[in-house]
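Q: What residues go here?
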């Protein structure tokens, strides 16, 4: 049995405009790295956390990575198994890029390899979702599932969980701007209205169906038209300074759709080539810079594989 492992799990864009809590996809970068070292005394410890500017909890019952591991170990036969966990945050926290999901996915994915793949992918998903829920205050799988499975995923049902993997069009690029402000998912979720008008629901039904078709047909023009949000964006745009100017800059530069990533503040935009994706990033960043807000740009294709073991 292998005793040590280091795993990278990717960042994710959830909601994707029309799919609040139901659609997400993984990007190649950024992501998180979790290293694990098995113990034989049943103890779970966080040995190091780097890259978090001291904000992540070191209490194993509060950290998403170890909560997920504790869930996994509850279901494991050998109670003498424990683990030392090192978390290297390689992505911003509270950014809307699924940071807590990436850590919990990397942790349980790695743990399962150390346990000779004792658990199924579905089990691993359940453990990671429980880990992530500590940070977001709710059960939602639209970051965890794409981080674990790669590509685009659709969550058809939560109870019981039913996840459908969708195809990834060739030549689909994603530009992400992360303005340097923090939005806590827990707080951002409280802004979402409990009910939506039937006219809004109708738009969402049409767009979700069309998004799925666009992915199958590799129709990026149609995909762009489906990126429309009457649930999360109207409620959360006010949390992101100059959101509508950033979105306009992306669309004016040729983006096929642009919206908030998860609960924000990151904003994503699709394009068909790397050069356009780069131009979109520059245009978005010009807006934030002009308004005195620092930001990072990530340009990425869609990550099709999910987590990977690294040396
Ligand atoms: N779907 C979730 C939300 C994702 O929008 O609250 C949080 O990153």
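A:
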């Amino acid at each position: 049995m292998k005793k040590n492992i280091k795993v990278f799990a990717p960042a994710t864009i959830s909601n994707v405009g029309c799919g609040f809590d139901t659609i997400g996809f993984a990007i190649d970068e950024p992501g998180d790295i979790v290293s694990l070292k098995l113990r034989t005394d049943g103890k779970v410890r966080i040995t190091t956390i780097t890259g978090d500017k001291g904000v992540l909890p070191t209490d194993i019952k509060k950290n998403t990575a170890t909560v997920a591991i504790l869930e996994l170990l509850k279901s494991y036969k050998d109670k003498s198994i424990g683990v030392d966990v090192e978390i290297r945050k390689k992505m911003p926290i509270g950014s809307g890029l699924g940071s807590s999901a990436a850590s919990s996915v990397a942790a349980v994915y790695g743990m399962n390899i150390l346990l000779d793949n004792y658990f199924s992918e579905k089990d691993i998903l359940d453990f990671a979702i429980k880990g992530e829920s500590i940070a977001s205050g709710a059960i939602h799988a639209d970051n965890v599932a794409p981080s674990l499975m790669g590509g685009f995923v659709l969550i058809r049902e939560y109870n019981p969980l039913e996840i459908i993997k969708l195809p990834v069009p060739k030549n689909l690029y994603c530009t992400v701007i992360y303005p340097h402000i923090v939005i806590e998912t827990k707080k951002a979720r409280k802004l979402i209205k409990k009910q939506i008008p039937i006219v809004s629901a109708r738009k969402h039904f049409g767009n979700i169906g069309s998004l799925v078709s666009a992915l199958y047909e590799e129709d990026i023009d149609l995909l762009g038209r489906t990126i429309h949000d009457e649930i999360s964006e109207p409620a959360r745009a006010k949390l992101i300074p100059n959101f509508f100017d950033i979105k306009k800059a992306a669309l004016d530069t040729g983006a096929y759709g642009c919206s908030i990533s998860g609960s924000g503040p990151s904003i994503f935009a699709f394009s068909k080539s790397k050069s356009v994706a780069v131009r979109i990033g520059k245009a978005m960043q010009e807006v934030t810079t002009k308004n005195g807000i620092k930001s990072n740009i990530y340009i990425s294709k869609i990550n099709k594989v999910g987590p990977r073991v690294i040396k």
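A: Context that may help when evaluating the design: The longest strand covers residues 23-39. Residues 24 and 211 are 12 Å apart (CA to CA).
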